[in-house]
Amino acid sequence: MTTNVDQLEINKFSELAHRWWDPTSEFRPLHEINPLRLEWINSLAPLAGKNVIDIGCGGGVLTEAMARKGAKVTGIDLSKKALKVADLHSLESGIEVRYKLISAEEMAAQEPGQFDVVTCMEMLEHVPDPASVVRAAAALVKPGGKVFFSTLNRNLKSYLFAVVGAEYVLRMLPRGTHDYGKFITPAELSQFVRSAGLQVDSLKGLTYNPLTKFYSLNNDTDVNYMVACSKPL
Fold it and tell me: In which residues is S-adenosyl-L-methionine bound (predicted)?
């Protein structure tokens, strides 16, 4: 099976893997938004007792947080270094998570329809074919299950905020973290979702205030946004 992966992207995050759980590192924004997105997911798909898969889990920040909510969680990624960090952290924290070095497409072929909830956060803008990942997520979820995506909108504002502002001015992220050309509009992602046999339930924006240095959930999807989907019965 052809792997839908950009090796340069894998290398980029692998080099930073040892800093994944450092809340003052390049991954600080990830730690700061994690409680917001976790509670949003949990409000729409209560995680306790659910079988969950986190696609593109990286070092396992969201993955482990969902397991703390009582879910049985599998985290998949194609970065060996990130998964080693995730696995080590779960051993240290005592939170049980199953991690696998596998692509979303390969996982969908192995375990179709096995998950109540599928999450894929901050990953679609880092692969050559995001629609393929959406199809894999749709294949992994059970009928009646929920799928969650987050990514970056593509417009002038998102370029100024997510690339120029975050990477060059505020230096919240390493330079080169994002490729503006790979950003995905809500309309494009909604089309991927519907083509994969899912329905769009809701969109939610995630914004950062550089003065207060706080993130908040709202209806502003101009830059960072999340999509909740469901698979019809």
Answer: 37, 56, 77, 121
What are 167-204's pLDDT values in tens digits?
A: 545 565 666 666 778 899 999 999 999 999 999 999 99
The partner residues of 224 in beta bridges, in order of sequence, read 152, 206
3-state helix, strand, coil in the chain (%, to 5): 40, 25, 35
Q: Which amino acid is at 118?
A: V
Q: What is the CATH number of the domain that holds 57?
A: 3.40.50.150
Domain that holds residue 75: 7-230
Q: Which residues are annotated as a binding site for S-adenosyl-L-methionine?
A: 37, 56, 77, 121
pTM as predicted: 0.91
**Taking Cα atoms as reference points, which of 67, 38, 54 lies closest to residue 147?**
54
Q: What is the pLDDT of residues 35-60, one digit of tens each?
A: 999 999 999 999 999 999 999 999 99
Q: Is residue 2 included in any domain, yes or no?
A: no
Going across the sheet that includes 214-218, the strands are 98-101, 72-77, 51-55, 115-121, 141-152, 224-230, 199-209, 214-218
